[in-house]
Amino acid sequence: MFSEEGQKELERMLSRYPIKRNALLPLLHLAQQENGGWLSEESIKYVAEICEVSETHVEGVISFYTMYKLKKPGKYHLQICTCVPCCLVGGEELLEHTESKLGIHAGSTGDDGMFSIEEMECIGACSFAPAIIVNEDYHEKVNPESMDQLIADLSNNP
Ligand code: FES
After folding, report:
1. N or C: lower Cβ tally within 10 Å for the chain?
2. What is the per-residue pLDDT across 44-62, written as a single tens digit (0 to 9) for each?
3. What is the position in ligand 1's atom list of the atom closest to the CA of 122?
4. Residue 1 confidence (pLDDT)
5. With a threshold of 0.70, does the pTM exceed it?
6. Cα dist from 117 to 12, 59, 79, 114, 146, whole Å
């Protein structure tokens, strides 16, 4: 199920958790990485087996955390914060601008699979609002112009 490197990481993780179910969160993170940024039914089943819990239990945990994805994201997953501190300095306008620029709405992926957008609650970078995360990288004090530049740069790296 996992790549060779992923399997090694799995074994390292399990060695740190004598009770397998306690490894559920990091294992879901690893499974998501291994599956291209989302958790398929097979990924969930695999993690449930390893952690010796039911698939229903795993699904319950996944539904609680926004960092776990049940749909395949774009190659570049743009997570845009629209919580109050970011909104006060243009977070909502930034989301609208990005949706318009890419021709997709938050919660969806473009037809070419390059970009997806997700509207986020606070991502913990309020001091640098408006903040976004692209895949796992934070970008701070983003405005429509810097978003356009970012999209152009990412588009040149398909
Ligand atoms: S409100 Fe946007 S990062 Fe905290």
Report:
1. C
2. 999 999 999 999 999 999 9
3. 4
4. 79
5. yes
6. 33, 23, 6, 10, 16
